C-alpha cells in the first residue's frame, strides 16, 4: 500500500512539473537528492561501524556481561514471573544494555531470543504474558543513555554539537518507559480485580 502511495506521489509530481514546464527542475532535484542521500549514508556508516565495533569490544572483554549483572536485580523486579535461571532473563538484560548504549540493531537479536524463551515457558501459547508485554515495553521505549544512531545522523548533517541531545533523549526514553510500565501495572491490577 505504501509503495502505491509513493508511486502516486512521484507520478503526480512529474505530471505537475510537466504541466508547468519545469521537468528539468525535477530531474535536477532528484539527482541532487540522490547525491545528498549518499553523503548521509557514508556519514552514518562510519558512526554505526564505530559503535558496533565498540559493542564487539564490550562483548569480547566481558564488560557487556558485567553491565548485565549490574542491571540483573532491576530486571528480577521487572520480570517476577521469569525464573532467575531462565535464559530469557539473560537475553532481556543484554537487550536492555544494548538499547541503553543506543545499539538498537544489536539489541534486536537478544529481544527476539528473549521473546522466544518467554513463549517457550508460556502456559497459554499464542497469548502474551505479563513478562512478554513488559519486554515489549522495555524494547519499544528503549531507554537510551547514548543514542549513537541519532548522534551519527546529527554529525553527518553537520551539527556543531551532535551529542547535545543525550540528556534529553535519556530523559524522554525513561519517561516513556515509566509511563508504559505504570499503564501496564494499572491494567494488570485492574484486570485482576475485575476478574477476581
UniProtKB/TrEMBL annotation:
Keyword Membrane assigned: yes
Pfam families: Gate
UniProt entry keywords in alphabetical sequence: Membrane, Transmembrane, Transmembrane helix
Transmembrane segments annotated in the record for this chain: 40-58, 133-153, 165-188
Family annotation (InterPro entries): Gate_dom
Domain named Nucleoside transporter/FeoB GTPase Gate: residues: 44-152
Protein's name in the database: Nucleoside transporter/FeoB GTPase Gate domain-containing protein
Species, as recorded: Candidatus Avidehalobacter gallistercoris
Amino acid at each position: 500500500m505504501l509503495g502505491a502511495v509513493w508511486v502516486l506521489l512521484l507520478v503526480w509530481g512529474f505530471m505537475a512539473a510537466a504541466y508547468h514546464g519545469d521537468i528539468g527542475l525535477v530531474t535536477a532535484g532528484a539527482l541532487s537528492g540522490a547525491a545528498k542521500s549518499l553523503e548521509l549514508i557514508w556519514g552514518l556508516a562510519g558512526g554505526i561501524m564505530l559503535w558496533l565495533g565498540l559493542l564487539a569490544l564490550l562483548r569480547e572483554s566481558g564488560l557487556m556481561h558485567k553491565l548485565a549483572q549490574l542491571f540483573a536485580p532491576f530486571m528480577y523486579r521487572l520480570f517476577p514471573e521469569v525464573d532467575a535461571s531462565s535464559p530469557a532473563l539473560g537475553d532481556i538484560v543484554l537487550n536492555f544494555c544494548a538499547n541503553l548504549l543506543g545499539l538498537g540493531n544489536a539489541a534486536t537479536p537478544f529481544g527476539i531470543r528473549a521473546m522466544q524463551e518467554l513463549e517457550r515457558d508460556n502456559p497459554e501459547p499464542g497469548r502474551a504474558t505479563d513478562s512478554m508485554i513488559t519486554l515489549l515495553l522495555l524494547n519499544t521505549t528503549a531507554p537510551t543513555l547514548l543514542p549513537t544512531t541519532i548522534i551519527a545522523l546529527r554529525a553527518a548533517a553537520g551539527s556543531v554539537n551532535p551529542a547535545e541531545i543525550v540528556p534529553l533523549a535519556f530523559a524522554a526514553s525513561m519517561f516513556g518507559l515509566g509511563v508504559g510500565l505504570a499503564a501496564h501495572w494499572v491494567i494488570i491490577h485492574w484486570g485482576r480485580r475485575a476478574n477476581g
